[in-house]
Specification:
By secondary structure, the chain is an alpha+beta fold. Helix content is 30%, strand content 21%. The chain has a domain of 245 residues: putative glycoside hydrolase family protein from bacillus halodurans (Beta-galactosidase, Chain A, domain 5, Distorted Sandwich), CATH 2.70.98.
């Protein structure tokens, strides 16, 4: 597909509002990877912008917003009669037309700076102000914090040389107290502390004439003194590129991003959002928007891909619960229809005690079960840097993980927990504060707090994906192999029992669904998958190869009977959550998929388990979050794609692409399903599922459209590896273009290409 056509297809997904909003539920997203901005205009004509960064970590390790910028215009420019707001995807820009002119907003690429310009045909006075809700010390939650007197400090706002300086400076941290609670205080030097002396905020600078204005909001976050923070902002502000150049460079960067990879679908019948009608009495925010794209799937994929890109280039992993675009109030927004009506619509924060734009559903930890989903879809789009950020995050914990392995279990290697704060430890709420007669390492939270080993195997699988994609030998030597060896050494030294020559791993949680199992399938399937892949590495040192070959011989088989995969070799029937662990052998570990043995066993498992556990339906907004479904973080759609179940995959994708949050206007705001709006995992699974429907790679073979309906049309450009791109166009089941190309645009022949659904 030609460059111009790509840009036109992306532009068709631009979103336009013609009706003023009432609250942040009308926000449009912007971002450069680190700085994310949510922008909306209210009925009084005021332009609002939330500012968020992934490294804005408070004293309590919450990722909180930098604050809000408010712009007022005199005379009022945006009225019921004169207002249009448009997100222009190929420019990475929001354009807002008013009575006498236009305002443009963008986040300058790689500078973490919000730029706003305006040009009018008549004199207009613009006032810009910074607003914060953190005006006093705050104790958001937690008996533990109260006991130790740990608070989040108030923000500081100052006028300096005609500019507005604002920042949050961490006055204390709770890491030392958490270390005491978890009996690792004697290893304090091994615990990373990203909170101590953390300062984050920015400076607002405005210039204006009678008919023009320009605003820069430059942001920064670091562990440094106030003086150093101010000096850094001043130096960067002095050396900022001119606004015209910034706008031009930002547009070029976004155009290049869209050209790098794409999927455009046509002919997919739109699914209805079945829950809009039942929730209309609760909805206060306008739902009006326009979009030229006629494909619901293309629109969903493109907008989600855009929002992910806005948040995936920061110093910290993508937040599963709302990304950096969580909105106010956001508290309990995943619960019931009644609560949805109360907290997910247009009520401003000032009307609700202790609720503000910093609030998110669930907890402040990074939860592997949730964090992982956006990263599984990135390599196929050629996005490698976010994965390195993810790996660096978990690599910070290796020393404290080794200490905990020995302290808690007298084991070697690394003890990884599924839920981690930025220091690598668990929050007091998850770990538990009443430790009387409770062994060290035992988490009071018996769901995610007790999930062990399988997250490390998934992380290893992602590292392997990255290595085979890039061929990065330095990464192999310095990161992948040391981590994987530590993980396997931890397993065999914590669980040294062998029965009939096979390992007995447990009792352990089988993810969050079964407790106290032996040889749970996510661990056994993960070991089979990762060991096979590690042993295929030609550069693997011989001593390690021999170790892994011996390890492989001790592995028990993947749990199953004649008819279906099983959750574990030994387990009790009682289920504690709605996820299906049997499917882990299919995704993410890919032990079973098309062109592999025992495909029918996997298909039968999928069919039986999805219906038995009632995940063969979309999420019902307003039901309890324990309601089973194939939406949110549930990966049934990805599994269906890997198994070549075209009809199931198509139906799940269609239905999930319709699950926009009814209380928000922007159509990429998924949920509420299990987590804060936008539900990051839901959007990530849309990306991942569609990519797996149109292309799967196994070894040196590329399968094109292995689960894509023949009655739909598709054009896509996806990466096979770091130097090979697949371009395909299919109309009415006929392929008019199938090309492998190199980074230089020349046709190559590096892989076998098969269409197994012909």
């Amino acid at each position: 597909m030609k460059y111009k056509e790509i840009q036109e297809r992306v532009s068709a997904c631009d979103i336009t509002y013609n009706v003023l909003g009432q609250s942040d539920r009308s926000a449009m997203p912007l971002g450069d990877g680190e700085l994310a901005v949510s922008a909306w205009v209210t009925e009084d004509g005021v332009l609002h912008c939330y500012l968020s960064r992934s490294d804005a970590l408070s004293e309590l390790d919450r990722t909180i917003k930098l604050g809000e910028i408010q712009l007022r215009f005199s005379p009022v420019q945006f009225t019921k009669e004169a207002y249009m707001q448009k997100l222009r995807l190929t420019k990475g820009q929001i354009q807002i037309s008013g009575r006498d002119g236009m305002v443009k907003l963008w986040v300058a690429r790689n500078t973490h700076c919000l730029c706003i310009t305006g040009q009018f045909c008549k004199p207009v006075v613009v006032s810009a102000a910074y607003h914060t809700w953190r005006t006093a010390p705050y104790e958001p939650f937690g008996e533990f914090q109260f006991k130790h007197g740990i608070q989040e400090s108030a923000d500081v706002v100052q006028q300096v040389d005609g500019k507005t300086l604002f920042y949050h400076k961490n006055s204390q941290t709770f890491i030392e107290e958490i270390a005491k609670l978890q009996n690792v205080s004697d290893a304090q030097a091994l615990i990373p502390n990203l909170l101590q002396d953390r300062i984050f905020g920015g400076v607002l600078d405005i210039e204006q004439s009678e008919r023009t204005f320009s605003i820069r909001v430059l942001t920064h976050s670091a562990q440094q003194s106030v003086e150093a923070f101010c000096d850094a902002l001043h130096t960067r502000l002095v050396h900022m590129e001119p606004l015209e150049e910034s706008e031009r460079n930002t547009q070029k960067a976004w155009e290049a991003y869209w050209d790098k990879s794409y999927i455009f679908v046509d002919g997919d019948p739109a699914a209805e959002n079945d829950y809009l009608a039942s929730l209309e009495p609760y909805m206060q925010e306008p739902t009006e928007y326009s979009c030229a794209c006629t494909s619901q799937i293309t629109k969903a994929y493109t907008l989600t891909k855009y929002m992910t890109a806005c948040c995936s280039g920061g110093a910290m992993p993508i937040l599963y619960s709302g990304m950096l675009f969580n909105l106010c109030p956001g508290l309990d927004e995943h619960y019931t229809t009644q609560n949805f009506g109360r907290v997910c619509t247009a009520q401003p924060a000032v009307q609700m005690k202790n609720v503000n734009p910093d609030e998110r559903s669930w907890c402040r930890e990074h939860l592997w079960q949730n964090v992982r989903h956006p990263y599984y879809a990135m390599l196929e789009r050629g996005e490698t840097e976010p994965l390195l950020t993810l790996f660096r995050y978990y690599s910070r914990f290796q020393e404290i993980n080794r200490f905990r392995a020995m302290r808690y279990y007298h084991a070697e290697g690394q003890h990884n927990t599924e839920m981690t704060l930025s220091c690598g430890l668990q929050s007091p709420e998850i770990y538990g504060t009443n430790r009387v007669n409770v062994p060290d390492g035992y988490a009071e939270n018996r769901w995610g707090g007790a999930v062990d080993i399988s997250p490390g195997l998934e992380l290893s699988g992602l590292m392997l994906d990255y290595y085979f994609f890039t061929g990065d030998q330095a990464f192999l030597t310095a990161t992948l192999l040391p981590y994987y060896y530590d993980l396997l050494r931890y397993i065999e030294t914590r669980f040294p029992s062998v029965e009939n020559g096979k390992m007995q791993i447990g009792p352990l949680n089988c993810i969050e669904t079964y407790r106290d199992t032996i040889n749970p399938i996510p661990i056994i399937a993960g070991l089979h998958s990762t060991l096979q892949r590690v042993l295929s590495i030609r550069a693997l040192p011989e001593q390690q190869r021999l170790y892994y070959l011996q390890y492989q011989k001790k592995l028990p088989p993947i749990p199953c009977n004649e008819d279906t995969l099983l959750p574990a070799e030994s387990f009790q029937e009682e289920r504690y959550n709605v996820e299906v662990p049997e499917l882990y052998a299919i995704y993410p570990f890919r032990n079973y998929m098309q062109n592999k043995p025992n495909l029918e066993l996997a298909k039968k498992t999928y069919s039986l388990r999805t219906k038995e556990y009632r995940i063969d339906q979309p999420f019902q907004i307003g039901l309890t979050p324990k309601a089973p479904s194939y939406s949110g973080w549930q990966s049934a759609g990805v599994v269906a794609a890997l198994l070549g179940l075209e009809e199931d995959a198509a139906e799940i994708l269609r239905r999930n692409c319709a699950l926009q949050n009814p209380g928000t206007r922007f159509p990429g705001m998924w949920g509420p399903i299990y987590d804060a709006v936008p539900d990051t995992d839901h959007g990530a699974n849309i990306l991942n599922q569609l990519q797996k429907m149109v292309m799967q790679v196994e070894g040196r073979t590329i399968f094109i459209c292995p689960a894509f309906p023949k009655k739909w049309n598709v054009a896509f450009k996806l990466f096979v590896d770091a130097e090979t791109i697949m371009e395909v166009k299919c109309e009415n089941g006929i392929f008019s273009d199938i090309r492998q190309i190199g980074l230089d645009g020349k046709v190559v022949d590096r892989y076998i290409v098969k269409n197994i659904c012909e």
